[in-house]
Amino acid sequence: MAVVGAWISNRFGLLFPAACLLMVLMLADYVSGMMASKKEALEHPDSNQYGWSSRKGALGIFKKAGYIFIVFVAVCVDYLIYKFAQELGIKYESQTYFGLLVTIWFVINEFISILENAGRMGAELPEFLKKTLSELKKDLTGSGKDKK
Predict the structure, then answer these.
(1) CB count, 10 Å around CB of 90?
(2) Burial class (CB within 10 angstroms; exposed 0-12, middle 13-18, buried 19+) of 94
(3) With 70 as the cut, is the pLDDT of residue 148 above it?
(4) Cβ distance 34 to 52 under 8 Å?
(5) CA distance 103 to 124
(6) Which of 6, 14, 53, 67 is deepest in the core (most CB within 10 A)?
(7) CA-CA distance, 63 to 70, in Å (whole number)?
């Protein structure tokens, strides 16, 4: 396993630790979302709107699988660009440019989601962090752009 891990790390450079971080954060987000839903269900026992739902859980898993597929597609695009650049004699240093960008984007998205789940569980977030999260979310979703 160490040899395979070293080969993958050498082959994908910074993408490998970023992808590992993404996997850990996806698991943490899923668990924190379940915990937040359970807390909300305890606070609102008469409402069907809150609580665990196999449908919500399955949708969350599908969303995470979609993240993995999107990263895979970005890595495939990187591979195609790298191979075509090699064939054309163009020096192209990075083999994982788009894959890394997409992975980091999802890492930031997962951080935001985990912090939102912590807030739903009752954790008090510092004001500067709430403001930063709000701005990051606007930037990531594109809703903070001026419409002209």
Answers:
(1) 10
(2) middle
(3) no
(4) yes
(5) 28
(6) 67
(7) 11
User: How would residue 138 be classed by pLDDT, with cut points 50, 70 and 90?
Assistant: confident
Token pair of 146, please? 């001026």
| Predicted structure pTM score | 0.78
Rg of the chain (C-alpha set):
19
Q: Which helix (H) or strand (E) holds 48?
A: none
Picking from 33, 34, 25, 37, the residue whose alpha carbon sits closest to that of residue 67 is 25
Give the tokens for residue 29: 């987000």
Question: How many whole angstroms from its chain centre is CA 101?
Answer: 11
* Other residues' Cβ atoms within 10 Å of the Cβ of residue 102: 23
Distance of CA 99 to the CA centre of its chain: 12
More confident residue, 133 or 75: 75
What are the DSSP calls for 82-139, one per residue? HHHHHHTT-----S-HHHHHHHHHHHHHHHHHHHHHHHHTTPPPPHHHHHHHHHHHHH
